[in-house]
Amino acid sequence: MALLETVMWVVFGIIVIVVLLFAWSVYNGLIRKKNKVINALAQIDVQLKRRTDLIPNLIESVKGYMKHERGVLTELTKARTSIMKAKSLEKKAKASNQITGALKSIFAVAENYPKLRANENFLHLQEELSGTENKIAYSRQYYNDSVMGFNISIQIWPNSFFARRMGFKKKDMFEVPAGEKKPVKVKF
Amino acid sequence: MREMFEEVRSNKIKSYLLIAFFVIMITVLGAVLGIVFMGSFVLGIAIALIISVIYCAIAYNSGGSMVLKATGSKPVKKKDYPHLYHTIEGLAIAAGIPKPKAYVIEDTALNAFATGKDPKHASISVTTGLLDKLNRQELEGVVGHEMAHIRNYDTRIMVLAAVLVGVTILISDIILRSFLWGGAGRSKGGKSGGSMILVLIVVGIIFAVLAPLVARFIKLAISRRREFAADAGSAILTRYPPGLASALKKISKDPDPLVDKANRATAHLFISTPFRKKKGFLVGLFSTHPPIGERVRRLKEM
Question: Is residue B173 assigned to a domain?
Fold first, then answer.
């Protein structure tokens, strides 16, 4: 009887240790994934900031030429102000898309001004901005992938059992609500 | 994600195997040469071990810069090639790795490669011809392919193979020449005839062993699967497989080979085989790349 009891205790102890070890590895894995998400988000912010900083230079370099298209420039300035004020991910995403649209319009309009297209400063800004625009898209993609990885790993069983008790919550993707994906309309 | 980690681990293991393989091979060579020339195989082994271990340490740590130098790649500044810089930065962000250094090869041929022992010490080198002839999406596809090589640690094993295979070819050339020249000169004397026959046998054996080993090295480093995996990686990073597909088509139609800047040791590093017109024994034996048609077909199916 005593032997049986000892065996039971040993088995029980082993089970507890295995569960603890598993919980430990789940915790570490989730922390790693969570940090990846945080870093990815920081990367988006770096790129958004870079673009926000470039915009005044662009406006400065084109406003002398675009006398009749002030609407596009106002649109861009407004979008820039709203992204600087935006706190939530959703608002940032929305403002970011407005900027993307407005920039597209400006570069499309610039095609009508041969002098502007020959301006070295403008060309430099155009390359900088389209490069930054791509980097925003890539950082958003990396962020969304990281969020997806994180969300999946806190939802699959048996991780889900521990994740909820350890206080891990689903993260939001950097997306634009479906209805607002249309390019921004620009009035001249 | 899971497959990627397995890929990385398998590449790390293979890199160490490659080093072990190389050290053992040079040690055996040292033992043989030690017996023949110094009358002591222990001394031969000792010297060979020291040399090969030091060489491997150098190859592991600075193989990347050795390859960059060998291919005539020059580091470039952002202001000279903003377009290339932005593409590399963007795809590094997409892959979640530090930005590799940008290099350019002044050549009209269309080609590109990546090196580095790990993502923190990586570089991407492209020819100026590639920058001139590819549009933005195509360049992104090519850079994405190289970025996938870096992230998967393909570059570590590919660079090791380049540097170790390079020196193996060099050693076998030296032995072959000194054997031919020395053999012709000394056989007239007739006095050392016995030891010359021994050397002849030994060198024969070494070559019989060495040649297939070199071929194995390269096969180990550049399986076709690795190229297909990098193509798929590029498609995932850029989310636009047609970009790389169209770049590969342009590259395959390009008539200029990169012969003077690539050789047997570095050929497998490039996105597309640098030998174009040459056909023959070497090209077949060292066939390092899957056919471009097949790669384009797979990209189109994605």
Answer: no
Give me the count of residues in chain B: 302
Q: Which pLDDT value is given to residue B279?
A: 47
Q: ipTM score here?
A: 0.77
Q: Which domains does chain A have, with CATH numbers?
A: 38-180 (1.20.1440.20)
* pLDDT higher than threshold 70 for residue A30: yes
- Asked whether residue B50 is assigned to any structural domain, the reply reads no
Average pLDDT, chain A: 85
Provide the residue type at B217 as one letter.
Answer: F
User: What is the predicted pLDDT for the residue at B264?
Assistant: 64
What's the pLDDT tens digit per position in B98-108?
999 999 999 88
Say if residues A181 and A72 touch (Cβ distance below 8 Å): no
pLDDT in tens, B69-121: 888 899 998 888 999 999 999 999 999 999 999 999 998 888 899 999 999 99
3-state DSSP assignment of residue B262: coil
How is B9-30 classified by DSSP, letter by letter? Answer: HHHHHHHHHHHHHHHHHHHHHH
Nearest residue to B195 (alpha-carbon basis) of B35, B18, B48: B35
Task: Report residue B53 as tokens.
Answer: 């271990």
**Residues in chain B, pLDDT under 50:** 184-191, 277-286
Peptide bond before residue B119 is cis, with ω within 30 degrees of 0:
no
Task: Count CA atoms closer than 13 A to B285's CA, side-chain side.
Answer: 12
pLDDT given for residue B99 in this prediction = 94
Residue B34, token pair as written in the block: 């030690």
Active site residue B146: yes
Selecting from B82, B85, B94 the residue whose C-beta is nearest the C-beta of A141 gives B94
For B294, other C-beta atoms within 10 Å of its C-beta total 12
Query: Total domain count for chain B?
Result: 1
- Candidates B188, B241, B178; CA nearest to B37 is B178
CA distance B225 to B212: 21
- Domain extent, residue B241, equals 69-154+223-301
More confident residue, B202 or A167: A167
| Active-site annotation holder among B146, B227, B294, B301 | B146
Check A138 against B94: CB less than 8 A apart: yes
CATH number at residue B243: 3.30.2010.10
**What pLDDT does B285 receive?**
47
Q: Tell me, what's the pLDDT at B204?
A: 66
**For residue B272, what are its two tokens?**
């597309």
CA of B118 vs chain A CAs: smallest distance (Å): 19
Contact across the interface for B86 and A131, Cβ inside 8 Å:
yes
Given an 8 Å threshold on Cβ–Cβ distance, is B93 in contact with A142?
Answer: yes
How far apart (Å, rounded) are the C-alpha atoms in residues B235 and A129?
24
